[in-house]
């Protein structure tokens, strides 16, 4: 079976040297650190609940969620640099998108961020899919991730505008 042409045509993945693997591990560690900072850096005293900057920044109306998501998008760029498959990057962007959209809802969004922990999920996905060497990231990969980020932020802007419109409509009904 080892002489079967189907098996002999499989290309062997080049082995990473120690320096390349150290660099990859440093990038994975960076993603883990960003995720912990955003999702679980502080433990609420007397509980086992941990919160991060994502939930805390979310308390700043409008701007806080954007800052947290901008920082969290760094994990997506690290995923491209580490040559994570595109479908996994889509999944990571989806996690960010859910957190962004629900995060725009005052109060509920912050509680959701504490529960959902999109950045920790993304760091785990990055680590899981970088255990084996894959093909190098191309310009198309980078454009794909940038497009996903722009799309995610566009959806978040639309959700925020819709919520703002709803509040203004209710306010105008009260005034009349």
- Coarse shape: flat
Main β-sheet, spatial strand arrangement: 1-2
Work out the helix count: 8
Q: What share of the residues does DSSP label as strand, in percent? A: under 5%
Detail the poorly predicted runs: 1-12
Quaternary state of this entry equals single chain
Q: Taking Cα atoms only, what radius of gyration do you get, to the nearest Å?
A: 20 Å
| Number of extended strands | 2
Write a structural description.
The structure is a single chain. The protein has one domain (17-175). 71% of the residues lie in helices and 2% in strands. Mean pLDDT is 82; it is low at 1-12. It has a two-stranded antiparallel sheet with strand order 1-2. By secondary structure, it is mostly helical.
Topology:
Blueprint (H helix, E strand, L loop, with lengths): L4 H4 L9 H22 L2 E2 L6 E2 L1 H5 L5 H19 L4 H18 L4 H9 L1 H11 L10 H37 L1
Antiparallel strand pairs: 1-2
Question: What distinguishing features does this structure have?
Answer:
2 strands; 8 helices; 71% helix; mainly alpha; two-stranded antiparallel sheet; 176 residues; disordered N terminus
Brief sketch in words of this structure:
With 176 residues, this protein is mainly α. It has eight helices and two strands, in the order ααββαααααα.
């Amino acid at each position: 079976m080892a002489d079967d042409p189907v098996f002999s045509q499989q290309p062997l993945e080049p082995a990473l040297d120690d320096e390349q693997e150290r660099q990859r591990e440093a990038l994975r560690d960076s993603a883990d650190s960003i995720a912990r900072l955003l999702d679980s850096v502080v433990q609420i005293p007397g509980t086992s609940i941990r919160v991060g900057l994502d939930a805390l920044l979310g308390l700043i109306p409008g701007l806080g969620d954007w800052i947290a998501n901008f920082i969290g998008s760094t994990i997506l760029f690290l995923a491209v640099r580490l040559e994570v498959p595109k479908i996994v990057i889509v999944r990571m962007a989806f996690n960010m998108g859910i957190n962004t959209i629900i995060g725009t809802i005052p109060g509920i969004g912050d509680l959701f961020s504490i529960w959902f922990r999109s950045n920790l999920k993304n760091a785990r996905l990055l680590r899981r899919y970088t255990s084996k060497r894959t093909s190098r990231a191309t310009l198309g990969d980078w454009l794909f991730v940038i497009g996903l980020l722009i799309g995610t932020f566009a959806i978040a802007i639309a959700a925020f505008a819709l919520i703002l419109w709803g509040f203004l409509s209710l306010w105008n009904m009260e005034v009349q």
